[in-house]
Amino acid sequence: MRLDPMTSRTRNQANQGVHPLLNLGGRHRHAALTFVTVPTDSYSLPAPPPPRRGGRRPQDSPPRTPTPTNEPTVALLFTGQIAFSYHHTAGPSNPRHPRPSLSATPTLYSMPSGSISQSMPDVAPPSSVVPEQPELMWHHAFGFTEDFKQGFPIPKGTVVVSSSHQHAEPSPSPSFVASFATDSGEHSAHGGDADNDGSLERHRLFGQSRFATSLSNAAPVYLHVDLVTSLIGCSWKYGFETGLHGCCKPSYTPHSSASITVHMPINFVKPDILVPELPRITPPHDARPSLLIRSPSVLILINHCGSCDHFVSTWFPLAFLQCSVLSFSMKTTIACFFLLLILVPLLGTSVDKKVYIVYFGQHVNGEKALHEIEKFHLSYLHSVKESEEDARSSLLYSYKHSINGFAAKLTPDEVSKLSEKEEVLSVFPSHGMYSGHTSRSWEFVGLDEEDGYSSRKLKNGGENLALRAKYGKDVIIGVMDSGVWPESPSFSDQGMDPIPKSWRGICQEGVAFNSSNCNRKIIGARYYVKGFEAEYGTVNPTEDFLSPRDADGHGTHTASTAAGRQVSDAAALGGFAKGTASGGAPLARLSIYKACWAIPNEPKADGNTCFNSDMLAALDDAIADGVDIISVSIGTDEPLSFENDVIGLAALEASKRNILVVCSAGNSGPDPGTLSNPAPWIITVGASSVDRAFSASVKLRNGLSLQGPSITPNKLKKMYPLVYAGDVVDPGVARNLTGQCFPGSLDPTKVKGKIVVCMRGDGLRVAKGLEVKRAGGVGFVLANDEFYGDDMQYDPHFLPATTLSYDDGIKILEYIYSTKNPMAKINAGKTKLNYKPAPFMAEFTSRGPNVVDPYILKPDITAPGHNILAAWSEASSPTKLPLDHRSVKYNLESGTSMACPHISGAAALLKAIHPHWSVAAIKSALMTTAAITNNLGNPITDSYGYDANPFQFGSGHFQPTKAVDPGLIYDATYHDYLLYLCAAGPDALVELSSTFKCPANPPSTLTLNYPSFAIPNLNTPVTVTRTVTNIGRPKSTYLFFVEPPLGVVVEATPSILRFKRIGEKLSFNITVYPRNDLSGENSEYGFGWYSWDDGLYHVRSPMAVYLP
Asked: What is one GO biological process annotated to this record (predicted)?
């Protein structure tokens, strides 16, 4: 998951994943086509095999990508008039829409893969006469009539595309209709004359917005494309930002031939949300065939007017084929279909093969040597391949440490065969759904930047934390990300001791990276690209380095935040945030694992992509190399179920070896239920602010001065005319797009020499400033809309600029319209320390509840992730925009990606002091000592000023100086996590270990010894059992305190814990039940806290309870 700090929208977007069947981006690798022969009277495709043991996926939300257990199907369903014969009848008639005289039921044409020689069924239309019912004329909306959407059971994972064509009455230009039906109804986007007052752009925006909303909400989606020809030929393009593009080039003359080309690259970038509704075709006589489509599938509906006397060429890029339908006769239709069948095998095996991960479960220690594990994997691969050579060439990775499994190029048939083998727990596709979740922060949490360590004492009078931890000396942090810029001063090894002899990693050489780029600080570096290249081809040297070198900046930033050396006088562009930059554990070692790559043909500002097969290989090596902590600022836009989450699977094995995995929660806020990396053995980190701000004021001629964030050092020395962008747009810009300063939207004749106020709206924030500069503006004010409120980002603009809150944006607009000659000037930005209130929760940080397991409260904790200064790749600009050629050594970035390495660095300090603590103990110490108040002593708020809650910050804002000595810990073992999985329900994981068997009646997941809990539906009393271990004072007595959620009673038994020694464990029960007088009134989640307090230690845990 990524947050581009230059992007206005931090919500999850609809174009950030890759559909396993229809990824047509990059090098246009396409879905395999499989045709299955069926009798015309049955319309039934072979049913999929029954679910195999371990092959069922949990019913989490939103639906996950189904594991392929059979061949995908591409069914070409010719419907509507294509199966009819028409002639003009007596009486009034529109020659463009003649009445039907013959009928036929819809006909499904499909054949098995490799069996194209089989004969086609007889498709001659029956001779029964249809009554003259003009309403049966199925025109452009055929695919979306209610009758159509009620009868065909189409499984999730299926994409349904329909197209149709009709004549139009003479009009000055063609029109385009794209319809999509969701669970909330039908929506259409109509494109008309581009010069007709911008109607095309207005409708494009409407369709784009509604369609993107449908995708992000995981709603069922239908697509329908209509082309309506006109008398005047033209050429224009119409596209959805979400990936559906249509290109219509019609040329029509009455009573002569016309040509229309439909270009439809189906490139949906969500893996599993295209879940069509249950459609029904209602042809004449109400024939209702039963059609079973195997999943995942592509169903193409071709619906054209049966009387049109012209040429139509429909190009489906998923087969690189052209199909010409002349006069829509049945004869030519069959000929066209046979052409498809003949050309499909010519696509080659590269189209058929996709990368899949085959998962066996857990390795048995000591059972096999590493070479034997790979041999074992090859034997399974060979069992479905034609030769051993083919098996070896198909193998991408053999995972030997993280999981027992391998990644290989497989055909759908091979996937099906492997899935049926008893030892295989699951097979799931490799995908690029993952991406990066994209100073003063350490001082803010108690570690002074000036010397790297705080002069503050621990609560119990103990020694300074960082000094006591020896600055994290020799703790090894593995960073899986986009690589590293090794020349940064943050990675200097000056004064560091030799590399520990226990280290088993390597320094892998590549483009612009050799062994000398590793040192005693960066002790290891590797890169993983096989999964990426299997999808996109060879890495483009102009876009990325085929080596551990970072071309993006994201990986360099996160690595230096966790363990960068102290660098004095570090600053962002323009000298902002100048001071000593330091990581949390400056003497810890770093090992770099590059698994994220530039998206081909996309700007860097769009982020990067990380394939799960590559990440799993990286995590596999990190475990084998001997790291202590793995920092992963990567995730998906939405959580994955446990058996499909490669980070979670590898982290589980890492926990067995006492390797802590820390992950970012994601940048899909402020919507609830959006966080990723939800596994309970992972520390999941949200993002909050620090007490440093950068502001610039815009002073109006009436004396009013408005403050807003800015990291632009430029200023205006005098007053300039002030205008609203909506009043200075180019005449051709659609009315609903005015004011947003989109590229090319401003009129230079009206902008030159002025300060322009732009609305935040959609689009890249810095790009808006670039548009003002292009049009000749001298200054730029970005005003928040109501959606963003007071949430403002710091951007390195190209001209004097500042950002205003929604309320201040209203004030400046009121001023503009209150005077004939509004004037203003923008002052230079300044750094402000000790900003209050701080911290507050970032608007973009992903929220709970945990949709994978709602009983585990996530995120776990929050850390600084808002405008964090850290090292940067000099191959990337501070904004990553193509027009930005500036280079910086340090950069300010925001995102949970920046918060994650703060926890990784803090964990390294704890690991150095307590090397024998379990990963659960470190996690517990950080969580139970976290703060829930800001520097004003009030509850932490969100970016709008309202009280935040544990679904945003987990246990609170981390305090490493207190976590080193927490008093009590909630410990858990690998065995506990396996028992948890028994209750969690993923059938594919219940037999992870050959030495562990799930009990017949496993306990609830609520019984996992976790430092927090959530109850998603409190109808009756619920009892939660927890065990704490004393690591504070030998003899101590703890009292139970509680602040229950509204409408809930919380009681503990016992309510007093008396410890006699260090290491002693005591258990207690917490019973939660609804209050009778308030039950049913809340109907939402309520939040509270319970704690154990002995006067010295305050061990606090959050709770979330939903009252139905």
From this structure: proteolysis
Residues with Cβ within 8 Å of 386's Cβ and at least 6 positions away in sequence, in order, are none
C-beta separation of 49 from 107 below 8 A: no
CA–CA separation, 774 and 797 (whole Å): 13
Nearest Cα residue to 896 out of 435, 465, 469: 435
Are β-strands 1022-1030 and 1065-1074 bridged in parallel, bridged antiparallel, or unpaired?
antiparallel
Segment among 56-70, 662-676, 801-815, 855-869 with least mean pLDDT: 56-70
834 touches 818 (CB < 8 A): no
CA distance 22 to 28: 9
pLDDT over 70 percentage in the chain: 62
277 vs 146: CA distance, rounded Å: 11
* C-alpha to C-alpha distance for 889 and 431, rounded to whole angstroms: 32
Our CA angle for 75, 76, 81, nearest 5°, is: 145
Given pLDDT bands bounded at 50, 70 and 90, which one contains residue 434? low
Q: C-alpha 751: how far from its chain's center?
A: 38
Cα first-last separation, the chain = 32
Map out the domains of the chain with their CATH numbers. 73-87+97-120+141-350 (no CATH), 353-429 (3.30.70.80), 435-690+838-966 (3.40.50.200), 694-831 (3.50.30.30), 1009-1106 (2.60.40.2310)
3-state SS string for 634-700: EECCCCCCHHHCHHHHHHHHHHHCCCEEEEECCCCCCCCCCCCCCCCCCEEEEEECCCEEEEEEEEE
How far does Cα 42 stand from its chain's mean position?
41
Is the N-terminal amide bond of 822 cis, ω within 30° of 0?
A: no
Question: Rounded to whole angstroms, how far apart are CA atoms 339 and 356?
Answer: 31
**Residues classed as catalytic:** 481, 554, 897
Contact (Cβ atoms closer than 8 angstroms) between residue 925 and residue 1029:
no
Residues forming beta bridges with residue 1086, ordered by sequence position: 1105
Q: Is there a contact between 713 and 829 (Cβ–Cβ < 8 Å)? A: yes
**Is 70 exceeded by the pLDDT of residue 898?**
yes
Amino acid at 517: N
Q: How far is CA 684 from CA 180, 787, 837, 903, 912, in A?
A: 36, 26, 24, 9, 21
Contact (Cβ atoms closer than 8 angstroms) between residue 34 and residue 72: yes
pLDDT digits (tens, 9 = 90+) for 791-826: 677 788 889 999 998 889 999 999 999 999 999 999
Token pair of 177 as six digits: 């209709």
Per-residue pLDDT tens digits for 553-593: 999 999 999 999 989 888 777 677 677 788 999 999 999 99
Contacts of 350 (CB under 8 A, 6+ apart): 29
| CA atoms of 661 and 898, how far apart (whole Å) | 15
Neighbouring CB atoms inside 10 A of 61's CB total 11
Residue 724's contacts (CB-CB under 8 Å, 6 or more residues apart) are 739, 756, 757, 813, 816
The whole-number average pLDDT for the span 766-785 is 92
User: Which residues have CB under 8 Å from 689's CB, separation 6+?
Assistant: 838, 839, 840, 841, 842, 864, 866, 867
What is the token pair recorded at 1076? 């009778």
CB 857 within 8 A of CB 954: yes
Residue from 570, 574, 593, 595 nearest 492 by CA: 570
Is the pLDDT at 262 greater than 70, yes or no? no
What are the residues whose beta carbons fall under 8 Å from the beta carbon of 906, sequence distance 6 or more?
445, 584, 585, 863, 926, 958, 960, 963
Q: Across the strands, what pairs with 946?
A: none
Nearest-5° angle of CA 626, CA 628, CA 632? 105
Q: What is the pLDDT of residues 1021-1063, one digit of tens each?
A: 999 999 999 999 999 999 999 999 999 999 999 999 999 999 9
Name 274's Cβ contacts closer than 8 Å, sequence gap at least 6: 19, 157, 158, 159, 221, 268
| Mean pLDDT over each residue of the chain, to the nearest integer | 70
pLDDT at 447 (0 to 100): 56
Q: Which two tokens stand for residue 610?
A: 């990380």
Residues, the chain: 1108
